[in-house]
Design brief:
- It is a single chain.
- By secondary structure, this protein is mainly beta.
- It has a single domain (35-227), classed as Sandwich (Jelly Rolls), CATH 2.60.120.
- 8% of the residues lie in helices and 49% in strands.
- The chain has helices at 2-14, 19-24; strands at 38-41, 55-61, 68-72, 81-85, 94-100, 108-118, 124-133, 136-143, 148-155, 158-166, 175-182, 185-190, 193-199, 207-213, 217-227.
- Strands 1, 3, 4, 6, 11, 12, 13 and 15 form an eight-stranded antiparallel beta sheet that branches.
- The model is unreliable at 1-26 (pLDDT under 50).
């Protein structure tokens, strides 16, 4: 238990979820604004080989249904477990989602870590937010093969890009994706650096989760969400 508390504190401070962390990104946030619900998912108490409690798997597009499991690895950001989608179907328009149950956020910040481990069609990881159902949500995704981070909205199963930035996404290296939503503004971060901001009001609120495409084999860890009031 002491180890878990230490890890949570380190992630909380080091990944700019504190008021001072937000300010470093150019956004003024008072303490009273971030006293909403906070959830931290490190997967370290979940059983390896199984879907973690309070999560559900969904599919957008075609191909095999996803299979998300907890996996124990060495040198995870918060030891010892990560999440991975193991059904590696190479169908191009196939998006595997892992969504947390029972939350719906309007103004919030959310981040996760990911590491691309393989894939012939795709090597990427993504962060889903304002999720309504498996055909309606936003996703911020980073691609090793394309060398960019893109923001998409999925409406009735159709994906449209609404933001993009060319960045180097290294294979087999941990990276951070983060989103801050306030009203219709969506700020997007890669490795804790703001890379672009867009305005879009397609979805007002919803759940959050993880995303992969096609046959991407990707590790995820440290999924943390903080509601802002």
């Amino acid at each position: 238990m002491k180890k878990w508390v230490f890890i949570c504190a380190s992630c909380f401070l080091g990944l700019s979820m504190s008021p001072s962390g937000f300010a470093q990104q150019g956004q003024k946030v008072t303490v009273s604004e971030i006293l909403g619900e906070r959830k931290e998912c490190y997967f370290d108490e979940d059983k390896a080989g199984e879907l973690p409690a309070n999560f559900q798997a969904f599919l957008t597009g075609k191909g095999d249904q996803p299979r998300w499991i907890v996996k124990k690895i060495e040198n995870a950001p918060s030891a010892d477990n990560v999440m991975v989608q193991t059904k590696l179907d190479a169908t191009d328009y196939r998006f595997s989602l892992l969504i947390i149950n029972g939350v719906s956020y309007k103004d919030f910040a959310v981040f996760c870590r990911f590491r691309s481990e393989g894939g012939s069609v795709e090597q990427s990881g993504g962060l889903v937010f304002k999720y309504k159902d498996n055909n309606n949500y936003y996703v911020l995704r980073a691609s090793v093969l394309e060398g960019n981070v893109g923001l998409y909205k999925v409406v009735n199963g159709s994906q449209t890009q609404i933001g993009e930035k060319s960045v180097k996404v290294n294979f087999k290296e941990w990276h951070l994706l983060k989103v801050i939503c306030k009203a219709d503004k969506i700020q997007c971060f890669f490795n804790n650096k703001k890379i672009f901001e867009v305005s879009d009001e397609t979805f007002d609120e919803g759940s959050v989760g993880l995303w992969t495409k096609s046959d991407a084999y990707t590790f995820f860890d440290d999924l943390v969400m903080q509601e802002m009031r």
